[in-house]
Each structure stands twice: as structure tokens, then as C-alpha cells.
Amino acid sequence: MQCKAKSSQSGGPCKKQAIRGATVCATHGGRAPQVKNAAMARIALEQMLDPAIREALRILNAKTVSDQVKRQMVDSVLDRNGLGAVQKILDLTPAEAMTSDERKARLKVLHAELFGPRETVQ
């Protein structure tokens, strides 16, 4: 991959190769410890993901695995990457259009979503 930095001399894109796992060459920050660490983490993640993806493809192509299991596996992968089904529809009614009781009820729901349900003491 080509370095994403700009050349300070020409103003155009740098023509050097980025260091492995990073987006910049050694000249444009690729020698910095934080860049090296992030690059090593990306490489390690790639090395872990490749076998996981191969195994997922093997399962999806297996004739002995039920469609239900395959669907659950795909749903799980999508959910873990923030691409799962929408869980609920948001109420976008403006506060001015709500009654006082509706506003209080909505605030109670929002509070519970943010901080968890309130415990009642009896």
C-alpha cells in the first residue's frame, strides 16, 4: 500500500510504500512507536481473522450443517460488527407535541435505557 502522507517537497502524495500494517511510510511516521504498535496489532488481528473467516466459509458451504445454524452464524457475525437487525424504532416525536405525562414517561424510558432500571424499595 502506498503511503497516505503528502510530500513536503512536491505537495503531492508520497510515493513510498507504507510500512506493513500502517498507512504511512517510515519517513512520515512509520518509525514512531505508537504507529509500529498499531501496525503490529492490525497484523495480529488479520492473522487471527483469516482462519476464523476460512472456518466460517467452511461451515457455510458444508452440506451437513442446517440452514438454521448457518443463519444464526451469519446473524452473529453481523451483530458483532454492528450490522445486525434494527432492534427498535425510535420515537422522534418532538417534546412540544407531547403532553406532560407523555414527556415524563419518555424521560423515564430514556433514563432506564441510559442508566438501567431504577430499583424500587419496598
Features:
single chain; 122 residues; mainly alpha
Quick overview:
The chain has 122 residues and is an all-alpha fold. The protein has a domain at 26-87. The protein is 52% helix and 0% strand.
Radius of gyration from the alpha-carbon trace, in angstroms: 25 Å
Query: Structural class, from secondary structure content?
Result: mainly alpha
- Counting H and I runs of at least 4 residues, what is the number of helices? 4
Helix proportion: 40-55%
The helix/strand series, from N terminus to C terminus, equals HHHH
Question: In percent, how much strand structure appears in the residues?
Answer: under 5%
Average pLDDT reading: 85
How many angstroms does the end-to-end distance come to?
Answer: 64 Å
Low-confidence stretches: none
Total strand segments: 0
Q: Biggest sheet: strands, sense, closure?
A: none
Shape: flat
Describe the structure.
With 122 residues, this protein is mainly alpha-helical. It has a domain at 26-87. It contains 4 helices and no strands. The chain has helices spanning 26-30, 33-61, 67-80, 100-115. 6% of the residues are buried.
Topology record:
Layout: H1 26-30, H2 33-61, H3 67-80, H4 100-115
